[in-house]
Design a protein that fits this description.
The chain is α/β, with parallel strands linked by helices. Helix content is 37%, strand content 20%. Belongs to the leucine-binding protein family.
Length: 401
């Protein structure tokens, strides 16, 4: 049905399949893993993302369970780091024997976790937050997917937003990893193509206490774009940029959208700061999710919480469709439940979906974050929204055309 772009050579694929665990010894129910940065540069963003996935388990178990048993979620800390994620994924896959993984969150975390144990274990990963373009070309034997759009789109939309605001020049500083570089490359190309000037485009290393030297190389523009993480270099660079007085406009990507970004910063000094992140279209599916999340005491629009809900719901549907906790066949089942043809399933409709699957009826999940029709690379289309800092908090302003 698909001519998958992200494939391995026949020799590697054969080795992978031979090493894959064919089935997990579980009489009923299923366990999926959640790999995310509970510590590290996105630690303030991770808990509400995890809560989005946990909500799915609650709903599934209240509506009849999965494979005649309970859906469980085992979490592991990938620390937004490839090495830590490899160890965390190994525990999930080889000790906890999860069927599949929601995650990672940072792109390096996803790649590190998958390459470490996911590929050899034939484990499907569905990331709600790994947005770097590098994931599109990962050689993964059709096992890695994401429910958020690529930064190839976010960079284009950020450029369009800035140009529409008559911002004619920008200085970019980005964290030196797959996420930062991919985002910066996309933004720079789109901004330049639209007639803007990229006065500086410089990488920085995460985890430093002082970025004043780097900021000194960015003063060719007063419009500073920071593509980094709220709990790490993003906060430090923004604070020191404000202290320098050299910039008048501040812009951030999705990794910056968290309350922790403003720790230690005079909120009035960054009032009106703008940012972008993945959003959700208006419609019944989105509204249904928002009500479910709100009723459960979850921040419905927290960054990547809707996408985590979608990732967990899709994996649960795929496991039920596959009919067992076997890892073999799960990626094909995932594609089946995520796309047309089929009867529409919205967030919260587990019982309905389970009955349709049992009856042999095709289903098509419509997600909290929009349509989940995976392309050949495991990517989805999506929309990007604008946010602004108002009164010390990020407020969503609407869709970027």
């Amino acid at each position: 049905m698909f001519a998958f772009k992200k494939t391995l050579t026949l020799a590697v694929a054969a080795t992978t399949l031979a090493a894959a665990a064919p089935a997990l010894a579980q009489d009923s129910g299923a366990t999926i893993g959640f790999l995310g940065g509970f510590t590290g540069p996105i630690e303030s963003l991770t808990p509400p993302i995890f809560a989005g996935a946990e909500l799915v388990a609650k709903e599934v178990n209240e509506q009849g369970g999965i494979l005649d048993g309970e859906l469980k979620i085992e979490s592991a800390d990938g620390a937004c780091d490839a090495t830590a994620a490899a160890a965390a994924a190994d525990r999930l896959i080889n000790t906890n024997s999860v069927v599949a993984v929601v995650g990672g969150l940072c792109t390096g975390e996803t790649i590190g976790g998958f390459n470490g144990s996911g590929l050899s274990g034939n484990v499907v990963f569905v990331s709600p937050a790994s947005s770097a373009p590098a994931l599109t070309t990962l050689e993964d034997n059709d096992l890695v997917y994401r429910t958020t759009p690529s930064d190839a789109l976010q960079g284009e939309k950020m450029a369009a937003m800035l140009l529409a605001k008559d911002v004619k020049d920008i200085a970019i500083t980005y964290v030196n990893n797959d996420y930062g570089k991919g985002f910066a490359d996309s933004l720079s190309a789109a901004f330049t193509a639209g007639g803007g000037t990229v006065a500086a485009n410089l990488a920085h290393e995460d985890g430093k206490a002082d970025y004043r030297a780097e900021l000194g190389n960015l003063v060719a523009s007063q419009n500073l774009v920071i593509l980094a993480y709220a709990n790490a270099s993003g906060n430090t660079i923004l604070r020191q940029a404000v202290e320098s007085g050299n910039f008048t406009t501040y812009v951030g990507g999705d990794g910056m959208v968290g309350d922790a970004l403003l720790n230690g910063i005079d909120a009035s000094a960054v009032e009106g700061m703008i940012a972008t992140r993945a959003g959700a279209p208006t419609g019944d599916a989105t509204q249904t999710y928002q009500k479910l999340a709100t009723d459960a005491g979850i921040e419905a629009n927290a960054t990547y919480a809707p996408q985590a809900y979608d990732a967990a719901f899709l994996l649960a549907l795929a496991i039920e469709k596959n009919g067992s906790t076997d890892r073999e066949g799960l990626s094909a089942a995932l594609r089946d439940v995520a796309s047309a043809p089929g009867e529409k399933i919205m967030p919260g409709e587990w019982e309905k979906a389970k009955e349709l699957i049992a009856a042999g009826t095709d289903i098509d999940y419509e997600g909290a974050g929009g349509s989940m029709d995976f392309d050949e690379a495991g990517d989805v289309d999506g929309i990007i929204v604008e946010l602004a800092v108002e009164g010390g908090k990020f407020v969503e302003k609407g869709l970027i055309d």
